[in-house]
Amino acid sequence: MNQTHEIEYAALLMRSRWKLIEAVWLLHGIFVKPEEGFGLKMENFFSNTIVEQYDSSLEIGRLPETFLNQMLGWDITEVIHTIRISDWKELPKNWQKTIEIHKSISCFWNLLNAKADIKKCEVCYIDENGRWYALAPESMWNAEYLLAFAQEAGIETTWLVDEIKKHRSVPIKNAIVAA
Q1: How many CA atoms within 13 Å lie on the side-chain side of 157?
Q2: 173, 4 in Cβ contact below 8 A?
Q3: b/e string for 112-124 if b means 16 or more Cβ within 10 A?
């Protein structure tokens, strides 16, 4: 693992809020580092994707299923670095097309959209038109809540909880040394 990724990974684990783009992949054993162009890429998606009429039965902040699936299908491979945590190998840009991981990520994001407590989204993503999204990749959620939600969904998180405890048990400036 290169030192920059090591520092960023430790900082992520010590935060009390996680962006969904970081959290969903992290819960699947992948450290994601969005590049500078990620925000612009997502803004283009939110600005240019036709949103069907919102179902009034949807809680504010939730996404219509079609829109969510379009978002999950949006190609972001060129604007993120993905590193497998188990061996700290950077994954090739096309690895996300792997059916198994794509299905698992998509399933979890859909589950969040359907069942997560929207109030645990602490910082919503707001597009250029002023519409806010609790389940956008840049939205920030309470990390403890996301861990508990993943555990309830049957995702193995023991390894991640151990990693968090290891990094949080030392002063922030020394967290990298402990890793």
Answers
A1: 22
A2: no
A3: bbeebeeebbeeb
Determine the Cα–Cα distance for residues 167 and 175; give it in Å rounded to an integer: 5
Torsions phi, psi for 149 (to 5 deg): -60, -45
pLDDT in tens, 146-161: 999 999 999 999 999 9
The verdict on pTM exceeding 0.85 is no
Which 3 state secondary structure label does DSSP give 74? Answer: coil
Calculate ∠ Cα 68-69-75, nearest 5°. 105
The pLDDT tens digits for 103-156 are: 888 899 889 989 999 999 999 988 777 777 888 888 999 999 999 999 999 999
Question: How far apart, in whole angstroms, are the C-alpha atoms of residue 43 and residue 162?
Answer: 35
Q: Which two tokens stand for residue 50?
A: 């036709």
Helices and strands in the chain, H and E counts:
8, 8
- Would you state the structure tokens that stand for residue 131, as one six-digit string? 């519409």
